[in-house]
C-alpha cells in the first residue's frame, strides 16, 4: 500500500508521466491548479510542461485522459508559449480524442482545438484536421469535419481558410459512411453562408440529387454569416466596438482585421489552384504559329485553348513569349478566324493571370486598338472581350510637374562664369512657381476656388487639372532623349556570352557597358533577350567578376528603362535574391545596386512570393540580404502601398528570421521590422509582431528611429469644395471669395455683453452659431504640431487602407 502511495511525494511533472493512472490523475489535477495560479504567461514554470502536453491528451487510461485534456485546455488558454505545442497536440487529439467514446472527452478535445485557433495557430489546426479527413476510421473523419464546421462557424472564413477544404467536397460527399456524408454536407452549407455562390463550381461534379439537396439548404440558410469568436489579437478591438456597431457593421478596417462584417460573395477565383501551362505547350508551338499554312497555325492555337480551358487560374511565370506570339497573331495574321481566336486566347490568359498580366497589358491594348479596323463581327467581338479582360490589369501612371534641379545637366557644358550667374539667380528665385493664366477649360475651376486655396495650394486633383500647386523638383530623366541600343549590340554579342572563355564573355559585357554609359535613358523596346542573358550571367557564370559586372549592367538597364523594365522585374529580383549566397563583397555590392535599381519598376506585392521564399532559404546570406533589401525598399514605398495583407505576410517571415542563430540575419530582420514600423506606424505593426523579449524590441525601436523614409507621404484626398477663408481675427467673419457658392459664415457672439440692436422687421432671423471649418492645410499643420512624423504617417496609412 505504501508503494502505491509513494507517488504522492513526487513533483507534479513526474506524477503526470507516472506508470500508475491514479498518479497521473493526481498530477493532472495539481497541474490544473498550478496553471491557474501562474500570473505571467511567459513564466519559466510553463517550460517544464511544454514537452508533456501531448502525453496529457494521449493518455492510455480513459479517466486519466479526460483529466489530462482538462489540464491541456488550461495550459493552452494561459501559457504564452502554448503555440509551440500545436502540431503535436493536435495530431494526438485527432488520433486519440476527437472521436473518443466518452462524450466529455470529445467536448474538451473540441474546446482545445478552438482555443488553439484563438491563440492564432489556426493554420496548423486546420492542417491537422484536414489530415484527419484522410484516416480510414469514418468516426475520426466525421469528427474532423465537424470540428472544421464548428471552427468556421465561430471564427469565420477570414480565419479558417475555405480553400483547403473545398478539395474534400466531392470525396467526402461520396463516402460510404452516412455520418461522414452528413457532416460534410453541413460543412458545405456553412461554407456557402460565408462565401456564397463561389462554392458552386466545387459542387458541380456531384450527383444531381446531392446538388439539389445542397441548393435547397443554401436557399433556406440562416442569413449573412458573422463570427461569434475572435483571435486574441482581435478581441480588444471587438471589446472596444459599441454593440450597435457590432450589429449594424463596423468600419471596413475593423472588418478586415477581425473577420467581422458582411460575409459577402467570395471571388471563385480565390478558391482555385493555379495551373502551370507553359511547360505543357507543344514543343513545336511557336514554330507552328509561324507556319505558312493556316491549318498548322490553328492547330497550335487549339492546343493552347485546350490548356487554357482546363486552367481558369494560371500559375505566375514568364509569359512574355506567349503574349508576344498572340499579339503577332492579332496584329499580322491574314486569317480573320485565327485573329478572333488569338484575341479570345489573349483574354483567357489575362483572366487567368489577373494582376500578374499587368506587365504585358499596355502593349496588348495598343495591338487590339489598332486591330479594331477589322469589320468582321466575330473578330470585333473577340477583341472586345480581350480588351475588357485586360483592362483590370492596367496600372495608372502618375506624371511629375515642374522641374527644379532637373535643369542642372543641361547647363553643365556652359562656361563656368555663366553657370555661376545662373545658379545665383536660381538661389534668389521668387519662390514656388504658380501659373497666372489658365486654359479656357480650367478657368471656371479657378473662378470657383477661394483666394486662400489658390495661395496655399488647391486639392491634388485641382493641381493636376489646372497646373497649379507645388512646382516640386522635376526628375532630370524626363529631360533626356531616349537612346536605342539594341541594334547597336555586336552581332556576336549573345554567342560571346555563351563562350567558354571568360575573356570573350567579358568582351561582350564590356561592349554593352559602353553602350549603357552613353545612354542614361533607353528607348523602350523588346529587352527580353538581353535581360534573360544578363540574368543567366548572374545566376550561372562561374567567374565572380563577370557576375558582379552582369549585376551592375542589369541595374543600368533597369535605371535606363524605368517603368518600361517592369515586365522583367520580378524574374530579375528572384535571380538576384538567389545569388545573394555569394560572399564576395564586390559581387554582393553589385547585386544590391541592381536590385535597388529594379525595385522602382515593381512593388512589394509583386515580389512577395520570391521574398518570402528567400526568407525561408537555408543560406543565411540570402536571408540577411533579402531582409536588408526589404528595409531599403520600404524607405522608398508609400505607406498606402504597404497594406495590411503585405504587413502580415512580410512581418510573419521576418519574425522567423528574428529567431535565427546567425546574428547578421537577426540584425537584418530587426532593421526591416524597424523600417516597417517607421513607415506605417507602430500601431499597425505591433499586432502582427506580438510580444518579443526586451532586447529584440529595443533593437527594432533603434532601427525604427534610424530609418529615413525617402518618399513624400501622400496626403489623403482633400475636399474639393470651396471653404470660407478664416479672417485674421479668427472670428470666422471673412467674406467669401467672388464666385463662391457658400453662404456667409455667421459671426460668433462676443463673450462681453453688447447692447442688442433691433433688427429690421423684414430681415430674416440670424442663423445659429456654427463651428468654423478648417482647410486641409490647417488640419495638416495642426497634426504636425501635435504628433510625431511617424504617427502622422501611421494615420495616413490607416485612412488609406
UniProtKB/TrEMBL annotation:
- The HEAT repeats are found at 650-688
Question: What does the similarity note say?
Answer: Belongs to the TOG/XMAP215 family.
Species this chain originates from: Heliothis virescens (Tobacco budworm moth)
Enumerate the Gene3D superfamilies for this protein: Leucine-rich Repeat Variant (1.25.10.10)
Q: What is its main location?
A: cytoplasm
List all Low complexity biased stretches.
749-765
Q: Which GO terms describe its molecular function?
A: microtubule plus end polymerase; microtubule plus-end binding
Name its GO BP terms in alphabetical order: establishment or maintenance of microtubule cytoskeleton polarity; microtubule polymerization; spindle organization
- Taxonomically, the superkingdom here is Eukaryota
Cellular component terms (Gene Ontology) = cytoskeleton
Going by the UniProt record, its keywords in alphabetical order are: Cytoplasm, Cytoskeleton, Repeat
Q: Does the keyword Secreted apply?
A: no
Q: Which residues form the TOG domain?
A: 1-227, 270-435, 478-717
Q: What name does UniProt use for this protein?
A: TOG domain-containing protein
Give the subcellular location.
Answer: Cytoplasm, Cytoskeleton
Region annotation (Disordered) maps to 220-268, 428-476, 715-780
Among SMART domains, the record links this protein to: TOG
Amino acid at each position: 500500500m505504501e508503494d502505491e502511495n509513494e507517488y504522492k511525494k513526487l513533483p507534479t511533472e513526474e506524477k503526470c508521466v507516472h506508470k500508475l493512472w491514479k498518479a497521473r490523475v493526481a498530477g493532472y489535477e495539481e497541474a490544473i491548479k498550478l496553471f491557474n495560479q501562474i500570473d505571467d504567461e511567459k513564466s519559466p514554470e510553463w517550460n517544464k510542461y511544454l514537452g508533456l502536453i501531448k502525453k496529457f491528451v494521449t493518455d492510455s487510461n480513459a479517466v486519466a485522459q479526460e483529466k489530462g485534456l482538462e489540464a491541456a485546455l488550461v495550459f493552452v488558454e494561459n501559457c504564452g508559449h502554448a503555440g509551440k505545442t500545436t502540431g503535436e497536440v493536435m495530431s494526438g487529439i485527432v488520433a486519440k480524442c476527437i472521436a473518443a467514446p466518452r462524450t466529455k472527452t470529445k467536448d474538451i478535445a473540441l474546446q482545445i482545438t478552438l482555443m488553439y485557433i484563438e491563440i492564432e495557430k489556426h493554420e496548423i489546426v486546420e492542417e491537422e484536421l484536414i489530415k484527419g479527413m484522410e484516416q480510414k476510421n469514418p468516426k475520426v473523419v466525421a469528427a474532423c469535419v465537424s470540428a472544421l464546421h464548428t471552427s468556421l462557424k465561430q471564427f469565420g472564413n477570414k480565419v479558417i481558410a475555405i480553400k483547403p477544404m473545398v478539395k474534400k467536397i466531392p470525396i467526402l460527399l461520396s463516402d460510404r459512411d452516412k455520418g461522414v456524408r452528413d457532416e460534410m454536407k453541413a460543412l458545405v452549407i456553412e461554407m456557402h453562408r460565408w462565401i456564397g455562390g463561389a462554392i458552386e463550381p466545387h459542387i458541380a461534379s456531384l450527383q444531381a440529387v446531392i446538388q439539389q439537396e445542397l441548393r435547397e439548404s443554401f436557399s433556406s440558410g440562416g442569413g449573412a454569416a458573422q463570427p461569434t469568436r475572435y483571435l486574441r489579437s482581435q478581441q480588444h478591438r471587438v471589446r472596444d466596438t459599441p454593440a450597435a456597431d457590432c450589429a449594424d457593421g463596423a468600419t471596413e478596417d475593423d472588418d478586415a482585421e477581425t473577420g467581422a462584417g458582411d460575409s459577402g460573395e467570395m471571388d471563385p477565383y480565390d478558391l482555385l489552384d493555379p495551373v502551370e501551362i507553359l511547360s505543357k505547350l507543344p514543343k513545336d508551338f511557336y514554330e507552328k504559329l509561324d507556319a505558312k499554312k493556316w491549318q498548322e497555325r490553328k492547330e497550335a492555337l487549339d492546343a493552347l485553348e485546350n490548356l487554357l480551358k482546363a486552367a481558369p487560374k494560371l500559375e505566375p511565370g514568364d509569359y512574355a513569349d506567349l503574349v508576344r506570339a498572340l499579339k503577332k497573331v492579332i496584329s499580322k495574321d491574314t486569317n480573320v478566324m485565327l485573329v478572333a481566336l488569338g484575341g479570345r486566347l489573349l483574354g483567357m490568359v489575362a483572366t487567368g493571370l489577373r494582376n500578374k498580366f499587368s506587365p504585358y497589358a499596355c502593349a496588348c491594348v495598343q495591338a487590339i486598338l489598332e486591330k479594331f479596323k477589322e469589320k468582321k463581327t466575330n473578330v470585333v467581338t473577340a477583341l472586345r472581350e480581350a480588351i475588357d479582360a485586360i483592362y483590370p490589369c492596367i496600372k495608372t501612371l502618375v506624371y511629375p510637374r515642374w522641374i527644379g534641379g532637373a535643369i542642372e545637366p543641361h547647363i553643365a557644358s556652359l562656361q563656368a562664369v555663366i553657370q555661376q550667374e545662373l545658379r545665383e539667380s536660381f538661389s534668389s528665385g521668387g519662390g514656388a512657381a504658380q501659373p497666372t493664366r489658365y486654359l479656357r477649360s480650367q478657368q471656371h475651376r479657378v473662378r470657383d476656388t477661394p483666394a486662400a486655396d489658390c495661395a496655399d495650394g488647391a486639392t491634388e486633383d485641382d493641381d493636376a487639372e489646372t497646373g497649379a500647386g507645388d512646382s516640386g523638383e522635376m526628375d532630370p530623366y524626363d529631360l533626356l532623349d531616349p537612346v536605342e541600343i539594341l541594334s547597336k549590340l555586336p552581332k556576336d554579342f549573345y554567342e560571346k556570352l555563351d563562350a567558354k572563355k571568360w575573356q570573350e564573355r567579358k568582351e561582350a559585357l564590356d561592349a554593352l557597358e559602353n553602350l549603357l554609359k552613353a545612354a542614361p535613358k533607353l528607348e523602350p523596346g523588346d529587352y527580353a533577350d538581353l535581360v534573360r542573358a544578363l540574368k543567366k550571367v548572374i545566376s550561372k557564370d562561374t567567374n565572380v567578376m563577370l557576375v558582379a559586372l552582369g549585376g551592375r549592367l542589369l541595374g543600368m538597364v533597369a535605371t535606363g528603362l524605368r517603368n518600361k523594365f517592369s515586365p522583367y522585374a520580378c524574374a530579375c529580383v528572384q535571380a538576384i535574391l538567389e545569388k545573394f549566397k555569394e560572399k564576395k563583397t564586390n559581387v554582393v555590392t553589385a547585386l544590391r545596386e541592381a536590385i535597388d535599381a529594379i525595385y522602382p519598376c515593381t512593388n512589394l506585392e509583386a515580389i512577395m512570393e520570391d521574398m518570402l521564399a528567400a526568407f525561408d532559404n537555408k543560406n543565411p546570406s540570402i536571408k540577411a540580404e533579402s531582409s536588408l533589401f526589404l528595409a531599403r525598399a520600404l524607405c522608398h514605398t508609400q505607406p498606402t502601398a504597404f497594406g495590411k495583407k503585405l504587413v502580415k505576410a512580410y512581418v510573419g517571415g521576418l519574425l522567423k528570421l528574428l529567431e535565427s542563430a546567425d546574428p547578421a540575419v537577426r540584425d537584418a530582420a530587426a532593421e526591416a521590422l524597424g523600417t516597417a514600423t517607421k513607415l506605417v506606424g507602430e500601431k499597425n505593426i505591433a499586432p502582427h509582431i506580438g510580444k518579443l523579449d526586451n532586447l529584440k524590441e529595443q533593437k527594432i525601436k533603434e532601427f525604427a528611429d534610424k530609418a529615413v523614409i525617402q518618399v513624400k507621404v501622400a496626403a489623403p484626398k482633400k475636399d474639393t469644395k470651396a471653404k470660407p477663408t478664416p479672417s485674421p481675427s479668427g472670428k470666422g467673419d471673412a467674406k467669401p471669395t467672388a464666385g463662391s457658392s457658400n453662404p456667409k459664415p455667421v459671426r460668433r457672439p462676443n463673450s462681453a455683453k453688447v447692447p442688442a440692436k433691433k433688427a429690421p422687421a423684414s430681415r430674416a432671423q440670424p442663423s445659429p452659431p456654427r463651428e468654423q471649418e478648417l482647410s486641409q492645410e490647417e488640419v495638416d499643420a495642426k497634426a504636425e504640431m501635435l504628433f510625431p512624423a511617424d504617427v502622422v504617417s501611421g494615420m495616413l496609412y490607416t485612412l488609406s487602407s
